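Entry 14. Ran structure prediction on the chain below.
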Amino acid sequence: MSEWINAIVFGVGVLAFVLGITSIVMAVISTKATESGMQEKVEYGFFGVAGLVVFALMGYALA
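Output, structure tokens:
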């Protein structure tokens, strides 16, 4: 049963990593110069960092 839990934690970690990196890349390539464009960059950046934090927590849980 422990292997199932490790597999699920690993899957959640990989998913969080991919979504985090994708959000950060989307924040970097956003080209809107308006106020809503800056808000979009901040939101994507926040979700990107949050995804990387979840990835780090899942990695710590597996260690």
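The helical segments are 2-29, 35-62. Will compare against last week's run tomorrow.
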